[in-house]
Amino acid sequence: NLRGAIFDLDGVLTDTAEYHYRAWQRLADEEELPFDRQANEALRGISRRESLLKIVGDRTYSAAQLEEMMERKNRYYQEFIESMSPSDLLPGVRSLLTELRQQQIKIAIASASKNARTVIEKLNITELVDAIADGYSVERPKPAPDLFLYAANQLKLPPAACVVFEDATAGIEAALAAGMWSVGLGPVERVGNAHVVLPNFADITWAGILSKLNQHLS
Ligand code: G6P
Ligand code: MG
């Protein structure tokens, strides 16, 4: 009885997860803090502040220095997204969104990012979505369920009628905590707790997703 689809943005609809990583890497290099792709795994889907605190570790910085570093990382990130266009939608995304609309499934984007609306506009998918929940919508970040509950509320749907698409462990946890169905995009080491795991959206249809979720039920 699914009537709503809630999509994470970074790493699900587009590869901005890579831009977040590169922006943090540049900041970490400048500060001579140890950081690499492996360490970045722990940052996937979590808030800007929590990400910085993980990179900083036990090195001491003042509150003002932490603020400055968050702003600096955000500037680097915004440089990356400046040149984004609809061609940066990941394979299969536009056709899935279009199919969902045809099937009268409500669509929300729920991202912890304060840059989500900019990215959504660059991707030119604003007209395809019914609601947007972003880094300004709720206080508690994923893995708390709040952002997804906020999105479902915007869609006027109960949690059990919604399926969440996520690429981050924290996001799958948030979806499960919200009492929603979950589809993980990416490796099982990351999203293995989801009801269904897909490598990506290439050649994926809504009917295909429903049949996989049904297999889970039976
Ligand atoms: C998403 C991304 C995270 C990012 C967070 C905050 O959850 O997956 O990597 O840290 O948004 O994004 P922002 O653009 O507000 O720094
Ligand atoms: Mg993500």
UniProtKB/TrEMBL annotation:
Q: Where is the active site?
A: D8, D10
- Residues that, per the record, bind substrate: 8-10, 24, 43-48, 51, 73, 111-115, 142
- UniProt binding sites for Mg(2+): D8, D10, E166, D167
Q: Where is this site: Important for catalytic activity and assists the phosphoryl transfer reaction to Asp8 by balancing charge and orienting the reacting groups?
A: S111, K142
Q: Which family does it belong to?
A: Belongs to the HAD-like hydrolase superfamily. CbbY/CbbZ/Gph/YieH family.
Q: What is this protein called?
A: Beta-phosphoglucomutase
Give the stretch of the parent protein shown, with its full length: 763 to 980 of 980
